[in-house]
Design brief:
The complex is a heterodimer of chains A (266) and B (333). With 266 residues, chain A is mostly helical. Chain A has eleven helices and two strands. Chain A has one domain. Chain A is globular, with a radius of gyration of 20 Å. With 333 residues, chain B is of the alpha/beta class. Chain B has two domains: 205 residues, P-loop containing nucleotide triphosphate hydrolases (Rossmann fold), CATH 3.40.50; 68 residues, 2-Layer Sandwich (VC0802-like), CATH 3.30.2130.10. A six-stranded mixed beta sheet of chain B has the order 5-6-7-3-8-9, sandwiched between helices. In chain B, a hairpin with a 4-residue loop joins β11 and β12. In chain B, α7 packs parallel to α8. Classes of the chains: A mainly alpha (266), B alpha/beta (333). Chains A and B meet through α1 of A and α2, α3, β5 and α4 of B.
């Protein structure tokens, strides 16, 4: 049955409100996970800073340019972290047969499944990322025009879509493979390389990160449009289209897996 | 007469890898293309009318879940036709979902961290239940069970019984035409079982909801089902009224008597006197299995009383459980 966006938006809002309410009621849990998130981000930033204490530039990228890339990837990852976090437990649910419960609701299965979990910690990461972005933006003396902001938003969205696509596809592999955790873990580990300019990798890895495991589209190609507007490769301009295509494909893979799912014994 | 569920000669086959034993075998399996076909459901046909409660029985692995999955649209039959509510469930999974409710005994479908009432509200929005109908349904629930204590409790804090109860209420909330209950009383205590049976019965009566119930608990069957369907090894063994089931095996009742003296000897004497009935004895009772088509229990009792001093007596109906057990073990032949 086709249901409008309005319907899904409305349902999501209600689930989210309830979910947040119940999360807040576990105060200690909420505080500890927030502290954990802050520590993770600080340590990530710290190792970044130490790196630049020793090297003035990486692959021809200055400290602030790298910082921009770093902030960009943090912000781009937020929607995946917040909205699609339930992908991580897909494997367990499919394996145990609990996934079957999602199959009986008259709405989009992908939506219903993902709507069940909203990871608040992602928001903190976003605040951190935006802070880093602004800091780098100011120091790089980038113009603050509407055109630049629009470019930033469009390319952030496409970066998020690529990220989401990778995660969806990796998670959906559990519909066919029993030990899919390694695949999901692998993709999530490689995503860390998204924070670095592709110029530091050798051509083989550059090829892999562009065409096989397209993490280069998470931060590198989109950032080029903003940081190096004078020499933007075609792939950068195309990255919004590529992002939409990748996301659509990953969604189709996910749904195909779910449609073929028939649960465990009883 | 039109039926809400029409099943015509459905069959479901699965391809299963022939597994080998041991580590070496596992390695072999990795590259093996050695499949065999397992027929989980084999040529089953049935029609179910609106408002019926059908007990769907069979030993473990009989193919019950597979049939239910085909009715709910999760599995596609290998062959045959299945129409639920005028639609082919597999092709219209989401549309079919709007008209059915499903409860799996141990798997809650409610939002784990939300209080029950919030789950209800979400379901109301998802199924687009009009506000008036939603309120009427809640009122009906209030009149049937004590839900006030449950409404504000998060599902994860509930006991298994409370959760099952909540799941059943949630499944009926959008007033579906059919509700599938898969072992709804599994793992519950006696009083909770009774509560749940009463609830299912009342909801079926009030809303004319068709209920398909799979269970291993004959108490559920006796309390709820007028019609039962039994399958084993994918094949249909029986589809008829529950009363018919008992007659099907002859109208037997067991007369148990207690008397003075050596029961074993007396039993032998009675067996000689009434060779048409099976007589046995244990330490307390002599049992006579009376076929009521040949003689009434009262007549047998009168004949026994002429010769023995009977101190006590009991009359046992043959239980559904015993009949079902017999069917599982011997089939209907």
């Amino acid at each position: 049955m086709h249901r409008g966006l309005r319907f899904y938006f409305c349902i999501y809002r209600k689930i989210l409100a309830q979910d947040l309410k119940s999360k807040m009621s576990y105060r200690a849990d909420f505080i500890i996970s927030t502290i954990g998130m802050i520590c993770t981000n600080i340590s990530g930033f710290l190792s970044f800073w130490i790196l630049f204490q020793n090297f003035p530039s990486v692959g021809g990228w200055s400290y602030y340019e790298m910082l921009f890339l770093y902030g960009f990837s943090l912000v781009a990852m937020t929607p995946v972290q917040c909205l699609l976090d339930n992908n991580w437990s897909l494997r367990y649910q499919v394996f145990s047969g609990d996934f079957v419960k999602y199959c009986f609701r008259p709405m989009n299965l992908f939506f219903y499944y993902q709507s069940e979990v909203f990871d608040v910690k992602g928001l903190g990461q976003m605040v951190f990322g935006i802070g880093t972005l602004i800091y780098a933006w100011v120091h790089l003396e980038l113009a603050c025009t509407a055109w630049m902001v629009l470019k930033l938003v469009v390319y952030l969205v496409s970066a998020s879509l690529v990220m989401a696509a990778l995660q969806n596809a990796a998670a959906a592999s559990c519909f066919w493979i029993e030990n899919s955790f390694y695949l999901l873990d692998l993709v999530m580990r490689f995503k860390d390389y998204a924070k670095y300019p592709m110029t530091i990798f050798n051509p083989v890895f550059r090829f892999v990160f562009t065409f096989v495991l397209p993490i280069a589209f998470i931060a590198y190609y989109p950032s080029l449009v903003i940081l190096r507007p004078e020499a933007v490769p075609l792939l950068s301009w195309l990255s919004p289209l590529i992002a939409i295509l990748l996301f659509y494909l990953s969604y189709k893979i996910w749904m195909k897996g779910a449609a073929g799912y028939s649960g465990t014994g009883s | 007469m039109s039926y809400i569920i029409e099943i015509k000669h459905i069959t479901k086959e699965f391809k299963v890898l022939n597994r080998h034993e041991g580590l070496k075998g596992s390695l072999k399996d990795l590259f093996s293309r050695d499949y065999r076909i397992v027929r989980a459901v084999d040529d089953i046909s049935m029609n179910i009318a609106q408002g019926e409660i059908v007990g769907y029985l069979g030993p473990n692995g009989a193919g019950k879940s597979t049939t239910i999955k085909m009715m709910t649209g999760i599995l596609q039959p290998s062959s045959g036709e299945i129409v639920v509510n005028g639609q082919i469930p597999y092709k219209n999974r989401t549309r079919n979902a709007k008209e059915i409710g499903v409860v799996f005994g141990q798997r809650s479908q409610l939002w784990w961290s939300l209080p029950l009432v919030e789950s209800f509200k979400l379901l109301r929005d998802i199924y687009e239940v009009p506000e008036a109908e939603y309120r009427a349904m809640l009122d009906l629930y209030r009149s049937l069970v004590d839900i006030e204590s449950l409404l504000h409790k998060p599902v994860r804090q509930m006991s298994l019984g409370q959760r099952t109860l909540s799941d059943i209420l949630a499944a009926f909330l959008h007033n579906p035409k059919i509700v599938f209950l898969d072992e709804p009383t599994i793992g519950l205590d006696v009083s909770m079982k009774a509560k749940i049976r009463t609830l299912i019965h009342a909801l079926n009566r009030e809303k004319q909801t068709t209920v398909i119930l799979t269970t291993h608990d004959m108490g559920d069957v006796d309390a709820l089902c007028r019609r039962i369907v039994i399958i084993d090894k994918g094949k249909m063994l029986y589809d008829n009224d529950i009363e018919h089931l008992k007659r099907f095996f002859g109208s037997y009742r067991t007369l148990k008597i207690r008397m003075d003296g050596d029961l074993q000897q007396s039993a032998e004497a009675i067996a000689q006197q009434m060779p048409e009935f099976r007589v046995s004895a244990d330490t307390d009772w002599i049992s006579v299995l009376v076929d009521e088509e040949q003689a009434s229990v009262m007549a047998v009792l009168a004949r026994l009383q002429e010769r023995y001093r009977i101190r006590d007596m009991q009359l046992e109906e043959i239980s559904t459980e015993a009949v079902i057990k017999k069917i599982y073990e011997e089939g209907t032949q």
